[in-house]
Amino acid sequence: MTTSDPMSAMRRPLGALRTKHFGWSTVHDGRVGVVTLSRPERKNPLTFDSYAELRDLFRDLVYASDVRALVLTGAGGNFCSGGDVFEIIEPLTRMAVPELLAFTRMTGDLVKAMRACPQPIICAVDGVAAGAGAILAMASDLRLATPRARTAFLFTRVGLAGCDMGACAMLPRIVGQGRAAELLYSGRVLDAAEGERWGFYNAVLEPDALLAEATRRAAELADGPAFAHAMTKRMLEQEWSVGVEQAIEMEAQAQALCMGTKDFRRAFEAFAAKKTPAFEGN
Known about the structure:
Blueprint: H1 6-10, E1 23-27, E2 32-37, H2 48-60, E3 69-74, H3 85-92, H4 97-116, E4 121-125, E5 128-130, H5 132-139, E6 142-145, E7 150-152, H6 167-175, H7 177-186, E8 189-191, H8 192-198, E9 203-204, H9 207-222, H10 226-238, H11 244-259, H12 262-272
Parallel strand pairs: 2-3, 3-4, 4-6, 5-7, 6-9
Antiparallel strand pairs: 1-2, 7-8
Helix pairs in contact: 2-4, 6-7, 10-11
């Protein structure tokens, strides 16, 4: 009698995915996905369509059978200048509140999808990362920058609150409450050196080394235990809202699940044989 696994049937390769509003490719034998915001003539701003397509991509990555880590970057010497002034900002000034709420919920859904996808996301920031661009960097798991990176949560500069797309919840976790408050109230630019000192950026690299280093780190993660990395990402996300005792219990359950994977046994067998383990993500 043949049995089928309905969850396995839901998984599918995403390497050949075709996108309309940003670049998508894979490297490292298809294990690393590269998302490139690609409107360089305008510093890669987001539109209604690119927001929605990015959200859908990160949702689909939950079911990817091939991609195990991601690089998020921008084309032409900049990362992302935020929402397009003429294609998003101007239309928003003419919308009623129900339409505005539908839009802000959609942008928040993009961040939720980034945090919910099991693959670690490495953001490679060169040049401008402003508004929603700064949020995309914030919502990633690791952030690399060049010396010319300029990051600004500039919502108050256009008459909006700093609490956009999860910024008031997530940014203090990265840089601390006081520093986050300063950035969100003032909308000022955070340069690369200060961003590294504050822990927003994991490293600062020269422009010609940025993408290569981001890809190298992503490949290293992709070669690791994918299920265990996904569990680490989930616990990092969830444990901020629970007490220490509950967090310890959550980690006990998560680790027991990881101990039940073939990757865990492969690692033991490789250690016993004095070899490097080959993880397969199961």
